[in-house]
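Request: How about a record?
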Amino acid sequence: MLQDFLTPQLHEFQGYNNRTWMQQDGATCHTSNVSLPVVKEMFPNKLISRRGDIPWPPRSPDLTPCDFFLWGYLKSRVYLNKPTTISQLKQNIHEEIAAISRSMCQRVFQSLRSRFQECQQRDGAHLDDVIFKKLISLNNYYDK
């Protein structure tokens, strides 16, 4: 999948260049002895992962935009019209990702910056109260 799908997709993406970083969680398939060397070669010295160039805690959803924002947001949007086929679901996903505005991304990354600061102040401890606050604040993302 990495060589047959991800590599060609990256090369087609206009935002991909030698300054692109890869961040992944600690899932076994991401850190296996087979896949990890391939990813390290694709993103030399720019892999944030368990066993990567920059270690990343395997369970840090409060510091990962896809976890604290994107997956929940997309799920809330792509199922609104109750897709009945995989094709419809894929189409909804494509449309909703394309509809994410620049200002929404700016708000997400402002939240990420605040989360990093909070994590640093807590010396790396969990952000339990941030996780509960996020449920309320995510509604602000959806409403704008």
